[in-house]
């Protein structure tokens, strides 16, 4: 690759990272709006805590299943078209959810939304593996992964603004639906699946992957993923990473209001602070992985999960009546720590499976992560209703320790699977 083409490739690579991150952020806007709407829905009496917990659990499980199944398809189909269709379906389900008033219809539309949401990350994982060298994937994909937090911040901020302006909870679904339609068009027109689609030569992987033919069969792709011990350990760790993440994100505004007496709008701002800290933590985790641990993301995961547990325990121990800034700082610490491992799981399994099976590997890790909603959804609802928010927060901290232990079991793993 000549210097001129290399310069063009680098510019096109960062353009792809930015455009695909923007597209994926809108998936979050059409998914994380429920956490802000649910306190108002509970107060209005249109749904119960248990019903919300069940809906979030089924939504999460189906989302994980969707990521897994769509991982097979995303390795074969055009990524940008796949993402655009997912955004369009998600827009429709949000619109109809906002029009509903019965628990049955809330469940139907939000569960369908879970499937559509699973059409977002697998094609992104595949495209990122085609655009970014394995030696740079942790740093650059961590920058891309900030789209998770940016999308969540936009969802929280948008809903907080709608409530402040006097709009009801239904607008928390109608406005994101409109934005998702715009994002679908943007994705279709602007995101390029591979360097070749952008008129550039393919990514050079010879230094990292001698002997990789690029013509792997479906059976060989499955073996790359399911025959790898590290992928299994990281996928299991992802379960506990997501329990902690969703414990704070999905229930955050509700437990801040019910446990601390903080209004929904102010609680939403505190969760926004949690997400903003997560952006910094995600980028730091990628930098530490590449620069300190030379691509061994499991090692980074050990330390980040340890400190996530510390901050969760600190939030649990925070006495009633403590200043809001103390709760905010503890939430920011938890956000900084938990999003690093969340980003790294996709990076680790993508590198382990190589670009030949990156979408399948991230789909597998995804379904393990979103099976966690059996705990973070109905599980947290049950613990809260039975024992109170204090025990629920203590349980979240304990799950962070379990996730740390699983990353520790993969401490000796290589940075990638290309040498195999």
Fraction in helix = over 70%
Characterize the overall form.
Answer: globular
Strand content: under 5%
The CATH class name reads: Mainly Alpha
Task: Give the second-level CATH assignment, the architecture.
Answer: Up-down Bundle
Query: Could you say what the CATH topology is called?
Result: Growth Hormone, Chain: A
Overall average pLDDT: 84
Total beta strand runs? 0
Order of secondary-structure elements: HHHHHHHHHHHHHHHHH
Radius of gyration: 20 Å
Distance between the termini: 25 Å
The major β-sheet equals: none
Uncertain regions spanning at least 5 consecutive residues: 206-213
According to CATH, the homologous superfamily is MFS general substrate transporter like domains
SS-based class: mainly alpha
Number of helices: 17
Number of domains: 1
Structural summary, described in words:
It is a single chain. The chain has helices spanning 3-29, 33-44, 49-74, 79-99, 103-117, 121-131, 137-164, 171-190, 218-226, 229-260, 264-291, 297-317, 324-353, 358-370, 373-376, 378-387, 389-409. By secondary structure, it is mainly α. The protein has a single domain, classed as MFS general substrate transporter like domains (Growth Hormone, Chain: A), CATH 1.20.1250.20. Helix 10 (229-260) runs antiparallel to helix 11 (264-291), helix 10 (229-260) packs antiparallel against helix 17 and helix 12 (297-317) packs antiparallel against helix 17 (389-409). The chain is globular, with a radius of gyration of 20 Å. Mean pLDDT is 84; it is low at 206-213.
Q: Which terms summarize this structure?
A:
mainly alpha, Growth Hormone, Chain: A, 420 residues, 78% helix
């Amino acid at each position: 690759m000549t210097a001129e083409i290399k310069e063009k490739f680098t510019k096109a690579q960062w353009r792809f990272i930015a455009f695909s991150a923007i597209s994926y952020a809108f998936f979050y806007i059409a998914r994380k709006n429920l956490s802000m709407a649910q306190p108002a829905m509970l107060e209005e009496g249109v749904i119960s805590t248990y019903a919300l917990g069940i809906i979030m659990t089924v939504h999460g499980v189906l989302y994980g299943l969707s990521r897994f199944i769509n991982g097979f398809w995303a390795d074969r189909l055009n990524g940008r078209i796949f993402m655009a269709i997912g955004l369009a379906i998600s827009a429709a389900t949000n619109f109809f959810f906002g029009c509903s008033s019965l628990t049955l219809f809330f469940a139907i539309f939000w569960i369908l939304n879970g499937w559509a949401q699973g059409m977002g990350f697998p094609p992104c994982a595949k495209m990122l593996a085609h655009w970014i060298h394995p030696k740079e994937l942790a740093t650059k994909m961590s920058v891309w992964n900030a789209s998770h937090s940016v999308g969540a911040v936009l969802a929280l901020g948008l809903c907080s603004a709608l409530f402040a302006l006097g709009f009801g909870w239904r607008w928390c679904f109608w406005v994101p639906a409109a934005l998702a339609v715009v994002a679908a068009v943007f994705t279709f027109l602007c995101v390029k699946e591979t360097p070749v689609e952008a008129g550039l030569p393919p990514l050079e992987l010879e230094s990292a992957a001698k002997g990789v033919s690029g013509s792997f069969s479906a059976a060989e792709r499955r073996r790359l993923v399911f025959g790898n011990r590290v992928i299994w350990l990281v996928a299991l760790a992802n379960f506990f990473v997501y329990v902690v993440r969703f414990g704070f994100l999905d229930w955050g505004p509700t437990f801040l209001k019910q446990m601390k007496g903080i209004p929904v709008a102010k609680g939403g701002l505190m969760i926004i602070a949690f997400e903003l800290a997560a952006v910094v933590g995600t980028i730091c985790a990628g930098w530490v992985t590449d620069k300190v641990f030379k691509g061994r993301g499991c090692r980074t995961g050990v330390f980040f999960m340890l400190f996530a547990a510390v901050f969760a325990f600190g939030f649990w121990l925070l006495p009633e009546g403590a200043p809001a800034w103390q709760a905010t700082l503890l939430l920011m610490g938890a956000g900084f720590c938990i999003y690093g491992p969340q980003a790294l799981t996709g990076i680790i399994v993508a590198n382990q499976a190589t670009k030949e099976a990156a979408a399948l590997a991230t789909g597998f890790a995804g379904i393990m992560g979103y099976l966690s909603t059996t705990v973070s959804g109905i599980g947290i609802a049950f613990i809260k209703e039975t024992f109170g928010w204090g025990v629920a927060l203590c349980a979240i901290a304990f799950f962070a320790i379990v996730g740390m232990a699983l990353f520790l079991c993969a401490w000796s793993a290589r940075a990638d699977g290309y040498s195999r």
